[in-house]
Every structure is written in C-alpha cells, then in structure tokens.
Amino acid sequence: MSNVITEIENSQLKADIPKFGVGDTVRVHFRIVEGDKERIQVFEGVVIARANGEGANGNFTVRRVAYNEGVERVFPLHSPRVDQVEVVQVGSVRRAKLHYLRERSGKAARVKQKTFATGSVDAAVEAAPAAEATPVVEEAPVSEAPETTEEEKSE
CA-CA to 94 of 20 to 30 Å: which in 3, 32, 34, 55? Predict the structure, then answer.
C-alpha cells in the first residue's frame, strides 16, 4: 500500500527546482487564475522558513515588505501553480527559521549576503558545479617594439 503512495508522490515531484535555503532571496513566479484568465505574478522576498523537506509535502515561506507592511506567503515546493523559482541572492544565516525578522524593520531586517571569490552571486551559483573544468588561458606572444632608424635618432 505504501509503495503505491510513494510512486504517486514521486510522479508529482518537479525536477527543475533550484537549490535554495533559509536566508536566500528568491523570486517566485506563481500562476494566478482570475475568472477564465490566467497570469503569472512574481513574489520576491527572503525565505524565512522551510518545512517538510524536499518531498511532495515540502513548502517554504517567503517574506517581503510592501508599503511598510510585512507580507508572508507559504508556497508548496512541488505545486503546479509555482511556475518557477529564481535565486536572486544567497544569504548567510545561522538559524533554521528567521521568524525574528518579523519584529525588525529597515536595515536591521537585512540578511547578510554570502561572498564568493568570483565576486558575483549569479556567477558563483551557476559556476559551482562546473568548478572542476577550469579553462586554460594561453598567453599571446609579446611583439617587439619597432627599431628606430638612424634618421629618427639624429632628430
């Protein structure tokens, strides 16, 4: 019986979800149905909590401040309504849940950004799996300076 349930759950899982954690700033593209029309609404904020792991029941909470009011949304990780999840910034946090951000405002509510040797977060996230294949750069031969003629030396 449980094998049938796990097979059904595994068939519902998405494969294109990026790796992100608590403290990361993400942009969630969410499908909204209004009457007979469907559109995609983007919700950008800091991930303050993850729950129930990576499985079919997994979800994550995103918080942002809009018009001086904190807004939190809980998104199911493998929902068909979640069109895409983009990682904008990778945060450096030491907690599993960031509920303390609810009481903070302004600069105190910021999450420290991880720094990478390459400088760019996007480049570091994309280049992380391909770190083994470092391209070899060959040096171009240095051309010698043109020799001066006797007329130029006398002037």
Answer: 55
